[in-house]
Write a structure and sequence with these properties.
mainly alpha, 3 strands, single chain, 16 helices, three-stranded antiparallel sheet
């Protein structure tokens, strides 16, 4: 099949992809990260289907010809390109979600994607730092490991002390900290909101950071005051700011710290404090759930704190050693003694 045919057929399929992405964004409140991932995966599959079948007159005709064998063949091309099973599974998840919407919207009679099995992924538990290791890392944030120690310590305290996602952290505004209730309003996936407790250590770190934050904004961001507000200080709703207050001079700029920057901050501090190089912000969230469970917290409560829709997701975020499971069994089961 000629490669020149692909754009002609991809166009109607891409229209259906665009319609679905709008549904994800407007009705389901999908994050920008999710939208980018689904756009990449679905347009890739649409191009594959276009070259496989050739031109059709309409999007309905195009998508109606796709069978489960086509989806399996597409996954095969991903393996041929050297992608992992995890990457293929993510692509399949996007295709399944799209086909489910296509069926509900009446574009297809049968959901071909439902007949494709998820690639079997290797089962492994991610390494989680111990409670002692986490305490050492969070308590030792200093000038040697951080460009803005007060801010970076507050970041670690929030990630580990509240168990929030990286995107949830960077999306926090000043008004989301409810000091009187000792709680933080979190906007999670799908625009869902939840409150998480603000512990004493996190609150102390936040107050120290906020004092420095106010001083930097009042100074106009080290000489940027004239451009951003005549040297009278600057205001921004964003809680965590980038070091140079970049963006405040632009209309609507907030100088909000990015998720990529948070990842670099966490990794740098963790490595300098003796943790493995694969530590990232989500590691701290995983440690939050695991350590709560180790200390006796109820799994349902951890589910609420982490903002998981399904309990099975929470179970994947937590781990217990065989010895710990044996202790629980010996302590609780009537036939164990």
């Amino acid at each position: 099949m000629s490669a020149s045919v692909a754009p002609a057929i991809a166009r109607p399929l891409d229209l259906l992809v665009a319609d679905y992405l709008r549904v994800l964004a407007n009705e389901r409140g999908a994050s920008a990260h999710t939208l980018r991932a689904y756009q990449r995966e679905l347009h890739g599959f649409a191009a594959f289907a276009a070259e496989r079948y050739g031109p059709e007159q309409s999007a309905e005709q195009s998508v109606g010809r796709i069978e489960h064998t086509d989806i399996r063949a597409y996954l095969g091309t991903l393996y041929d390109r050297g992608l992992s099973k995890a990457s293929a599974a993510r692509a399949l998840a996007a295709i399944r979600s799209w086909f489910k919407w296509l069926a509900r919207a009446g574009y297809i009679q049968q959901n071909a994607a439902s007949l494709v099995s998820t690639p079997r992924l290797p089962k492994h538990l991610p390494r989680v730092p111990s409670i002692e290791q986490m305490n050492r890392v969070v308590d030792s944030v200093g000038d040697d490991a951080a460009s803005w120690p007060a801010r970076d310590k507050a970041i670690l305290e929030m990630l580990y002390g509240c168990g929030i996602r990286n995107a949830e952290l960077t999306g926090l505004n000043l008004d989301d900290i409810h000091w009187a209730n000792e709680a933080v309003l979190i906007r999670g996936k799908g625009q869902k909101q939840r409150y998480v407790p603000l512990g004493d250590a996190a609150a102390l770190a936040l107050r120290a950071y906020l004092a420095e934050r106010s001083a930097r904004l009042a100074a106009g961001g080290n000489g940027k005051g004239a451009a951003a507000g005549g040297g009278k200080g600057i205001e921004t709703p964003a809680l965590f700011l980038n070091l140079q207050l970049r963006g405040l001079s632009k209309p609507g700029g907030q100088a909000r710290l990015t998720t990529r920057s948070v990842g670099r901050i966490v990794k740098r501090i963790a490595i300098l404090r003796g943790l493995s190089a694969d530590v990232h912000p989500h590691t701290l969230r995983h440690a939050f759930g695991t350590h709560l469970l180790e200390e006796g917290a109820d799994l349902r409560a951890i589910q609420e704190l982490l903002g998981h829709e399904r309990l099975s997701t929470t179970q994947r975020y937590t781990q217990l050693t065989t010895a710990q499971l044996t202790q629980v069994y010996d302590r609780t089961h009537p036939r164990a003694k």
